[in-house]
Amino acid sequence: MEHDAQVTRAWVLHPDIYGANQRREASFALEEAVSLADALAEIEVVGSTVVRLPKAHAGMLFGSGKIEELKGLFEANDVELVLIDGPVTPVQQRNLEKAWKVKLLDRTGLILEIFSDRARTREGVLQVEMAALSYQRTRLVRAWTHLERQRGGLGFVGGPGETQIEADRRAIDDQLVRLRRQLAKVVKTRELHRKARAKVPFPIVALVGYTNAGKSTLFNYVTGADVMAKDMLFATLDPTMRAVHLPDGPEVILSDTVGFISDLPTELVASFRATLEEVLAADLILHVRDIAHPDSEVQAKDVEDILTSLGVGTGTKQLEIWNKIDLLDDERREAMNTRAARDDEIFAISAVTGEGLEDLFAAITTALDAKRTEEDLHLEFSQGKHRAWLFKEGVVENETQDEDGFHLRVRWTARQARKFEGL
Ligand SMILES: Nc1nc2c(ncn2[C@@H]2O[C@H](COP(=O)(O)OP(=O)(O)OP(=O)(O)O)[C@@H](O)[C@H]2O)c(=O)[nH]1
Questions:
Q1: Residue 7 DSSP code
Q2: Which amino acid residue places its CA nearest to atom 7 of ligand 1?
Q3: Does residue 323 line the site of ligand 1, with CB under 6 A?
Q4: Which of its termini does the chain have fewer beta carbons within 10 Å around, N or C?
Q5: 109 in ligand 1 pocket by Cβ < 6 Å?
Q6: Which N-terminal residues, if any, form the signal peptide (predicted)?
Q7: What is 200-370's CATH number?
Q8: Are the CB atoms for 281 and 204 separated by under 8 Å?
Q9: pLDDT digits (tens, 9 = 90+) for 283-309
Q10: Residue 294: how many CB atoms within 10 A of its CB?
């Protein structure tokens, strides 16, 4: 058979762990894994299968019959790469690669590949490199533990394998230290940028959501920008910011962030913390959901869990955006619209047709205006201009005066506070 030499022929396996993986329907999980693989241009998915995992086949992951059966399938389809949508130990990887004569990548490895393909900014590139190294490091440790066990767990030092692994581990540690230093520098620069932005008197609205939910499409619709919006997972990796005037509303900074995914590798969760700080700093969070997706509820729950684990969102107002209603049939669309209309914090929209956006913009304006905090200010007499501004903006609740100046109790929104700072 003649094949395009530029692309690697891949087969996707979703291991269905009996009894443990029922939270997500196996067929949806398999579909998502195929989309993940499709996100890499150099991979062509030639087939995909859900495989029920046996209870115990530690060294090979699957039973020998299944391995033979799959081997025949891979040979018949000239498969060069097998993607296993789950964790695979280094030992299992080596054994399966040998048995099937293919290269093998597990879910974390695949997601890391995609992230490394997508990272554009210096910070993104450094974070992905660090995540990949941390991942490699855990695989060294596992192999080492395994070697140790083979020798009967005596733990004596100096075996050739162990020395090599120790050396590899040290090399990785050194490189991680170097990368961490470089990253710290980049983060510092970004901090300065954010501080500069905080002086801009606009509230920040952050878009979050499961990958492919439509964040970039909504961002583009609102800002008229041309951020890459594709039916491709993780099209947006680095956060994008844009100041935009909402129709009949305030000027805001809209921020588009990386999409979330179930079972996000822990290495990546940690390394993307910094990027998600943009979300932490937001005045309002818009959680964009693909409401037409069959697994929409599970996706939403996973996004909420990741946000909670990152400490994002507590105390920050959130609106839920039910996107892609144009894809629903009339009956379901009607039902969604009715449900959304009953809840002040849910909005059914289509980021493609623009349906429902007017109500959403109005709600964003209201939410930002409602976010008032109370503060005590002391103004010197020479700051009369500031006092006049506060009275003009109508945020002063109470005022007293002494020989130094004015004591004001103000209730204001983040937007007003920032404007005041800029005076
Ligand atoms: N029919 C329809 N398609 C939509 C809508 N919103 C987004 N899409 C499509 O969904 C796909 C994903 O949209 P993106 O905007 O790239 O999604 P994202 O959430 O930014 O994705 P990540 O970058 O992976 O986080 C694209 O093919 C969009 O055209 C919508 O309201 N209706």
A1: S
A2: 214
A3: yes
A4: N
A5: no
A6: none
A7: 3.40.50.300
A8: yes
A9: 899 999 999 998 899 899 988 887 887
A10: 12
* Helix/strand/coil percentages in the chain, nearest 5: 50, 20, 30
CA nearest ligand 1 atom 25, residue: 259
CA 218 to chain CA mean position, Å: 16
Hey, what are 93's tokens? 């990887």
Q: Is residue 7 packed enough to be buried (19+ CB in 10 Å), middle (13-18) or exposed (0-12)?
A: middle
Judged by average pLDDT, the poorest of 67-71, 134-138, 296-300 is 134-138
Q: How many CB atoms lie within 10 A of CB 277?
A: 17
Which residue's CA is minimally distant from atom 6 of ligand 1?
214
Count CB atoms within 10 A of the CB of residue 38.
16
Our mutation pick for probing the ligand 1 site, out of 35, 217, 218, 326, counting the most ligand atoms within 8 A of Cβ, is 217
Residues 6+ apart with CB under 8 A from 156: none
Tell me if domain 8-115 and domain 200-370 are identical in fold.
yes
- Residue from 114, 216, 219 to probe ligand 1 pocket by mutation (most atoms less than 8 Å from CB): 216
Radius of gyration (C-alpha) of the chain in whole angstroms: 26
* Structure-token pair, residue 351: 């980021």
- Residue 213 near ligand 1, beta carbon < 6 Å: yes
Q: How many other C-beta atoms lie within 10 A of the C-beta of residue 422?
A: 10
CATH number of the domain located at residue range(s) 8-115 in this protein: 3.40.50.11060
The whole-angstrom separation of Cα 66 and Cα 76 is 15
ipTM over 0.95? The verdict is: yes
CA triple 93-94-95, angle to 5 deg: 95
Binding residues for GTP: 209-216, 234-238, 256-259, 323-326
Q: Is the CB of 326 under 6 A from ligand 1?
A: yes
Contact predicate 183/126, CB 8 Å:
yes
For the chain, the structural domain boundaries read: 8-115, 119-194, 200-370, 372-421
The answer to whether 218 touches 210, Cβ cutoff 8 Å, is: no
Tokens 């500031």 belong to which residue? 386
Residue 354 C-alpha to ligand 1 middle, in angstroms? Answer: 13
Amino acid (one-letter) located at 354: G
Quick: pLDDT tens for 164-219. 778 888 899 999 999 989 988 887 877 777 666 555 567 889 898 898 899 989 98
Q: How far, in Å, from the CA of 325 to the mean position of ligand 1?
A: 12
Q: How far is the CA of 337 from the centre of ligand 1 (A)?
A: 20
Q: How far apart are CA 198 and CA 129, in angstroms?
A: 30
